[in-house]
Amino acid sequence: MAPQSPNTFTNPILPGGYPDPSICRVGNDFYLVNSSFEYFPGLPLHHSKDLVNWELVGYGLHRADQCVGEMNLVDVQSRGGIHAPTLRYHEGTFYLITTNVYVPPGDNQPTQFINFILTAQEIAGPWSEPHILPGAPGIDPDIFFDTDGKVWVAGTHSPTKPNFPGEGEIWLQEIDLANWRLIGERYFLWRGACGGVWVEGPHLYKRDGRYYLIVAEGGTSFNHAVMVAVSDAITGPYTPNPRNPILSSRHLSYDYWVNSVGHADMVELADGRWFMVALGIRNESGRGSNMGRETHLIPITWEREPFEWQEIKYEWPVCAPATGRVERFNPLPLPNNRQNRSDAFFDNFSLPTLHPEWNFRRVPLPDTYSLHARKITCACLPSRRIFRNEGGAVSWGYGKKRAILPMPPAWNFGRPATAWMQALFCFSKTISG
User: Fold this and answer.
1) 147 to 23, 183, 206, 229, 329: CA distances (angstroms)
2) What phi, psi does 112 have (nearest 5°)?
3) Residue 278 neighbours by CB under 8 Å, 6+ apart
4) Which of 17, 262, 271, 385 is the S-S candidate for 292 at Cβ 3.0 to 4.6 Å?
5) Could you list the residue range(s) of the whole structural domain that residue 254 is in?
6) 15-52, pLDDT tens digit by residue?
7) Comparing C-alpha atoms, which of 186, 269, 261 is closest to residue 227?
8) Are 245 and 260 in contact (CB under 8 A)?
9) Which one of 200, 217, 265, 327 is the catalytic residue?
10) Does residue 200 have an active-site annotation?
11) Is residue 336 one of the residues assigned to a domain?
12) Quick check: is 374 in a domain?
């Protein structure tokens, strides 16, 4: 593995817990969103001018009043919450569509899949209240603005008659944005390419008059992969690429530097080139990493099928055309630039709000913290609540950007007390599938 040079960038482009990336371009600006699960603020939004240097500029869910009621992040269970968003821009408005996976308290309560849309005029917000889509099933919704003016929502659900356990299916339905409701017939597009197990994360694109559908498949572990299909009509039928998967690490050694690659989105640059963002897990210890699933950048070219005997020669995206895999070091997408990594942030607690890097598990409880501007300190107030699968605890922190985290030079936990305990800890979760 060659060392990084000034003309290359290093993957991942977003280190730390940034899974399920979705990307869009507005002029010469790029924007990314990621899943945030039970954490608040939710739906972190990053901005870049060059695809390799990213700045956190806000959150789609940044107010407590967005996360109560039917769209509940107050007592959402661990591994629930916000799953696999899609970020798009259309005629002056940003759109975020995603799912809140919520299990109500009590025994044997059915899981709720709350699909909703947020809008904003500026990426930093303010973002709207959640517009919940009644009757939208499953998870991982996508929103697509067609050239004829129609707007569509695609998503993932379990088919009525699955052929095997874990089979998923991609559905499509038109949406009335004036009334935030699905309308018309629901179409069932695809159940995947290579076995179709755990098909999810659909995204639609239109290129040269044809519709392309990419999906994640194979679960979120070593068999994760990206598949693609094409159709002359948005409602199908869709023809899968015979060379699927177009991106994966399932065919590589378990000891390759990154594994579990999948759940991707694509973006076209102003000059006509394409790139893909996808999640992956670094192989740092035990074929995993305490950094979780991170966002990686992969170049794309488009190639037409070369077979003379084919009546229709489809054009397909080819990921990392030189090697076919996610590389650690890559040529910079844009010239006269370089990647500048910054893992640090500064907050002296002198403002009325916390720095955006701070976050909480679930919507913070009342009186979780107190800002003392005059003293330039921040107090985490005591509570008898403990960490559990549902409900809140008095805790807040920030996402790791490095596998080995240096301890700060000084932490002041105040005077000892027998009734209360304060602690500095690292919290992480494992994902399997």
Assistant:
1) 19, 18, 9, 20, 37
2) -100, 135
3) 21, 226, 247, 261, 262, 263, 264, 265, 295, 296, 298, 326
4) 17
5) 8-331
6) 999 999 999 999 999 999 999 999 999 999 999 999 99
7) 261
8) no
9) 200
10) yes
11) no
12) no
